[in-house]
């Protein structure tokens, strides 16, 4: 349950030999759950166009979906198959309605 930002290179980079002409599309993707757009795309640019994508991301919706969404990754893991050990301490914040 994360937002994903894709920023592809578009245009010409003459100073870099391996990147002469670039084609791509920028997008902001959301989790595929009920509180987010049905196609899981918050915003996207036109293909192969030099542009900027600007959108608002609601971090409260993201936190609520982590707790109450149809898929709860932290609770649905299978400790009998693998063990999750964080490198840094993780704080899980619960949101009550």
How would you explain this protein's 3D organization?
This protein has 97 residues and is α+β, with helices and mostly antiparallel strands. It has a domain at 4-56. 10% of the residues lie in helices and 14% in strands. Strands 1-4-5 form a 3-stranded antiparallel beta sheet, with no helix packed on it. A two-stranded antiparallel ribbon has the order 2-3. It starts with a strand and ends in a 29-residue tail after the last helix.
Can I get a quick summary?
The chain has 97 residues and is α+β, with helices and mostly antiparallel strands. The protein is built from one helix and five strands; from the N terminus they run E-E-E-E-E-H.
Topology:
Elements: E1 4-6, E2 11-12, E3 21-22, E4 27-29, E5 41-44, H1 59-68
Antiparallel strand pairs: 1-4, 2-3, 4-5
